Amino acid sequence: MNAHGPESHALPPALSHSELMLFQHLVEAETGIHLSMAKNALVANRLSRRLRELGLGSFAAYHAYVTTRGNEAEKVRMLDSLCTHETSFFRESRHFDLLREHVLPEWAAQGAQGRRPRSLRVWSAGCSTGEEPYSLAMTLLEAFPRESGWNLELVATDLSTWAVQRAEEGLWSMERARTIPPHLLRKYMLRGVRSQDGLMMAGPEVRQPLRFARANLHVPATWPQGRFDIIFCRNVLIYFGAEARARVIQGLLERLPETGYFFLGHAESLIGITAAARSVSANVYTPRPGPAALSRE
């Protein structure tokens, strides 16, 4: 498209109430995410470019297009465009403090005594552009450096294909570095020079335990296989409808052993959703022992 052509200045078509409801139902059915009626402007702004590129005259026509058999790739692209990607390194730092000061030292001692395997699996569910999983990787590597003999695996997933690709690339503006502790920034990040000036890239050591994949929390068949010691699912489920939220939480808790930890965002809670977990800190839970709890094997 000609960036200077008249169509670049054309106003997007209006998104009617009935059209917004079409996308509301589609997005919730596909992902569990509930788009409130207040999201009219957001949906219109994020989808209008594709309408122009595809030569479609209305949002109803675009809805028909993405729901037509054979256009699954466009549906994924549509969902990508409606995802929220707000994140930062060491966001909600008290969670990382809890890991660094209490959880990981306890597990290190248990591993040294032969009371637990010398391995950890962590899942960043809703990893966005990667700041959270790389923050987790730095935290784990400080507690369990390569010479410690521990096996670390950190799986990072997101609904957005674009976000997963950005996260795997591991390249950000240096402005994003302001929330990384200076000693970790020096140790694990590479500063860009010449044509890469103003950028930073994740170094090889912090990349090593990470693997990335697209996963839809609304569809457990897309989840990474196996159980995890730690699951971060922060500031994701607030966008879900109540029924979908409860179902996903139950599934995530079933992926943890009784000694595992489940981290939610600062505005999220399990109160009134499930009694299968107990609070150990603000927005941090462990599964309650019981017949439904899964052992670590």
Biggest β-sheet: strands ordered side by side in the sheet: 6-2-1-7-8-10-9
Mean pLDDT rating: 90
Structural class: alpha/beta
Strand content: 15-25%
Instruction: Choose one word for the global shape.
Output: globular
C-alpha-based Rg, rounded: 21 Å
Total beta-strand segments: 10
For the largest beta-sheet, the strand count, sense and barrel status come to: 7 strands, mixed
Number of helices: 10
Helix content: 25-40%
Distance between the termini: 55 Å
What low-confidence regions span 5 or more consecutive residues with pLDDT below 50? 1-9, 291-297
Give helix and strand order, one letter per element, not per position. HHHHHEHEHEHEEHEEHEEE
Question: What's the topology here?
Answer:
Layout: H1 17-31, H2 40-54, H3 59-66, H4 72-82, H5 93-112, E1 119-125, H6 131-143, E2 151-158, H7 161-169, E3 171-173, H8 182-188, E4 189-191, E5 199-202, H9 204-207, E6 210-214, E7 230-232, H10 242-253, E8 261-263, E9 277-281, E10 284-287
Parallel strand pairs: 1-2, 1-7, 2-6, 7-8
Antiparallel strand pairs: 3-5, 4-5, 8-10, 9-10
Explain the overall architecture:
By secondary structure, the chain is of the alpha/beta class. Helices cover about 40% and strands about 15% of the residues. It has ten helices and ten strands. The strands form two sheets. Strands 6-2-1-7-8-10-9 form a seven-stranded mixed β-sheet, with helices on one face. It has a three-stranded antiparallel β-sheet with strand order 3-5-4. Helix 5 (about 95-110) packs parallel to helix 6 (about 130-145). It starts with 16 loop residues before the first helix and ends in a 10-residue tail after the last strand.
